[in-house]
Amino acid sequence: MDLSALHIAVIGAGIGGLAVARACALRGARVTVHEQADQITEVGAGLQISPNGYAVLRGLRLSGAVEAAGDRAGLITLHDYRRGQVLRLDLTRSASRDYWFLHRADLIGLLHAGAEDAGVQITLGARVDDPAALDADLVIGADGLHSVLRPMLNGTLAPFFTRQVAWRAVVPHDGTRKDEVRVHMAPHRHLVSYPLRGGTCLNLVAVEERSMWAEESWSAEGDPNNLRARFSDFGASAQEMLKRVDKVGKWGLFRHPVAPVWARERYALLGDAAHPTLPFMAQGASLALEDGWVLAEALAAAPDMAGALVAYQARRKERATRVVDAASGNAWKYHISSKPLRFAAHAALRLGGAVAPSRMMSQFDWIYGHDVTGGRTL
To answer: With bands split at pLDDT 50, 70 and 90, how would you rate the model's confidence at 348?
Structure first.
C-alpha cells in the first residue's frame, strides 16, 4: 500500500504507540497520536531494552539517542538473599551486546522527539472513549492494559491475580555500578536492581508472593516502611538499597490472556493492549517496539488494509504468546522455598556458570536474537 494516502490514528503515546507512529510516518503516512495524559511523566521508572528491542530502535534511526540516554548492560548476577553471589554472566561475551537500561521517561522522551521529527501530530489531554468515532483510515490501539479498543475486537477477557505483588522505586546511587543487573533470590520473593542515568540512580523492583489482592496500577503508592519490613531478612547489600527508598509504587501482577483478535477492518492492537506480559523476562517494551515495526512494514508491503492486518497478526501473535508464556513461567525460579531444592538449584546455576556459561546465555536466543527489522533502517 501507499502509506502516503493513509491517515493513521494512534491511541496512546507510550513506547509502542510512539514507535509505530514514527515507523508509519517515515514511510509516508499522516499520523496523529491521541494521549489522554496532560503531560509525559516519569511513571514506571526504569526498564530494560534487550537486543531485539534495540534492533527496532536502530531501524527507526534512534540508536544514537538511546546510547546517549541509556546505560549499556554488561553483567547479570544472581544472589542468594543471605549467602551472596550464585551466578555471574558476562554479557560482553554474547553475540549482541545491545542490552540497555533506560529510565522510562527518557525512552518516551526520545521516541516522542523522534515521532514529532517524522511529522507525527501528538495531542496530549486527548482521551478517546470511542475509537469508532476517530476519523482515520486505521486506528491503532496502543493504550495498554485498559485499552478501549481491545474490547471492541475481543469482548471482555478477564485477567486473574497471580498472587504476586511488585514494588518499584528509584533510589540515588554513587555511580559505582554502571552496567550490572543484580537479582537477589529468596523464598517467595526476589529483588531486581540495575543502574539508570549513568549510575546516578538504581531502579529497584521487588516482587513478593501473597494471597491478598492488590490494585493493578502503575501509579498506586506503597509505604516504603512496609517494603523494607517485607524484605528485612535480605542481606546487607539489599538493605543498603532499600533504606534509600523514600517513595515506592506498588501493583498487583495479573495474567491477561493474549488477545485472540489483534486486527480487523480498520482497527489494530499492539503492545500491552494485545499481549500484556508479566515482568519476569523484561520484554514488555521490546515486544511493543517489535509490534510497531511489523505493523508499519505489513501496511507498506500488503496491497490493501485487510491483507496488511492479516499479515501483522500472523507475524506477531505466535511469538508474543510464546514470550508471554515464558515470562509467566519464569518467576518460580527466583522464589524456590524448599531449602534442599533451592540449594540444588543454586548449585546447578554455579556449575552451569562455571562450566558452560555460553549455553546458559544462549537459552533465550530465540527472544533476544530475533530481529524483526532484518537489519533494515528506515
So the answer is: low
